[in-house]
Amino acid sequence: MLVLGIETSCDETAAAVVSDQAPHIRSNVVFSQLAEHRPYGGIVPEVAARAHLTHLDPVIERALEEAGVGFDDLDAVAATGGPGLIGGVIVGVTEAKAIALARGLPFVAINHLEGHALSARLVAPVEFPFLLLLVSGGHCQLQIVEGIGHYRRLGTTIDDAAGEAFDKGAKLLGLGYPGGPAIERAAASGQAARAPLPKPMVGREGCDFSFSGLKTALRVAVEKRGGILSAADQADLAASLQESIVASLADRAAQAIALFLERYPEGKTLVVAGGVAANSALRRRLTDLAARAGLDFVAPPLSLCTDNGAMIAWAGLERLKAGLVDALDFAPRPRWPLDPNAVPVRGAGAKA
Ligand code: KG4
Ligand code: ZN
After folding, report:
1. 312 and 181 share a domain?
2. What is the best residue among 276, 302, 338, 351 to mutate for testing ligand 1's pocket, by most ligand atoms within 8 Å of CB?
3. What does pTM read for this prediction?
4. Per-residue pLDDT tens for 79-128?
5. C-alpha of residue 146 to centroid of ligand 1, in Å
């Protein structure tokens, strides 16, 4: 079976072909719109939507070419149906529906977060249920993945996502965009202890996240240094910011592991996914945490952590095999919680 996957929910225009036979990833083409958004210091939704429109056709063509297949070889077309920047989601969904209609193929609408969640099963034999820490630019959640389409949310952010905390922190430190990789690079030559920052939520009950206080503390620390930072200050503050975010994520994950094992004593795996999972300090901390709890730890390779088409194609394949396809009247969704029964959290910028 071969599935084409299309991802256009943020600032990556991506398409991939995956197979149910190894090697699963036949192609995985990602066009990053970074250069188009960099002048604005962040993603501009309207710019993203227009760029997807321009780049999607050639990206799909290349994905098919690199896989050595044509539209007629496909068994289904999957596209991110949400959540995300709605202009981009509409571009991807419309394209996928058009291909499905023209070629008589099933269409599968994928929840972007499910794409991240199931990417672990693309690279390792991870069984349900597993515990997922999903950390990206738009989302910061702990979920028990009970099966395809079945999620139990243990925690979410009441304000910023972890990726946003890196991105906004990098902006305050004058390190540019995207912030995560820039912070990680600068942190390598810094010492967190020279610029201590609070570790949000550490020791608190539950598994929710909050990063806006950390951002404020960082702003105050920058102002205290006169607003202009030496390279050494930049490095120390970057190291400290990274340490605080990682400590907070690890503390919340430890809480979630306890809840996961209480509910599923047979549970075996901790999975991390999303762009922030590219961070090696976080990977190290989670590796330790999982080992201490007797869990396997699975982190997809970096190319599958940040947004890509392979994870969408793979989720499409898993859904197709389970008989879960969508009608062509599927409406793109700006919001689409994985666990519709989760208790809403209260907070300034609470995300579903
Ligand atoms: O999953 P993703 O590619 O897009 C979303 O769905 O949001 O995640 C992008 C986020 C950005 O906030 C970026 O700063 C962060 O992932 N990121 C990192 C690293 N690489 C990317 N954060 C920390 N350390 C990294 N090495
Ligand atoms: Zn993502």
Report:
1. no
2. 276
3. 0.94
4. 999 999 999 999 999 999 999 999 999 999 999 999 999 999 999 999 99
5. 25
